[in-house]
Amino acid sequence: MHKLSVYILLGYKLSVIPDWTDRVDNAPTLSEAEEFYFELKGHGRSKTFYRGANRAKEYVIKELGDRPISAYSTSDAGKFRDWLLDKGLTRDAF
After folding, report:
1. Which of 7, 36, 59, 90 could cross-link 12 (Cys pair, CB 3.0–4.6 Å)?
2. Is this structure's pTM higher than 0.85?
3. Domain that includes residue 79, residue range
């Protein structure tokens, strides 16, 4: 498994990358990271667990794109939060 994906999955903060399209690294995309996440945390979980994680991933991809996980920034998180609020979700939902 890619070391960077473990850091993301464990919630470590990564540095902000201003222009992710110029970044060259081996970081997995969000879709690939979801596969790692399921391998680490999915054993014995219900279908609801998988559906919820997949829905969250699809929302991020729809709004921000399927980037390498090292390319998402804190400003992206703010954009995503605003998108969720515009979509009608309450802060309690996330």
Report:
1. 7
2. no
3. 3-8+26-93
Within a domain: 80: yes
CB 21: neighbour CB atoms within 10 A? 8
In tens, the pLDDT along 49-74 reads 999 999 999 999 999 999 999 999 99
Decide if 71 is inside a domain: yes
18 within domain boundaries: no
In the numeric block, the tokens 């473990």 are attached to 6
Q: How far is CA 36 from CA 9, 29, 49, 78, 93, in A?
A: 9, 11, 14, 25, 24
Report d(CA 62, CA 56) in Å as an integer: 10
Amino acid at site 19: D
Give CA–CA dist 47/52, Å, rounded.
Answer: 9
Question: Is 65 a domain residue?
Answer: yes
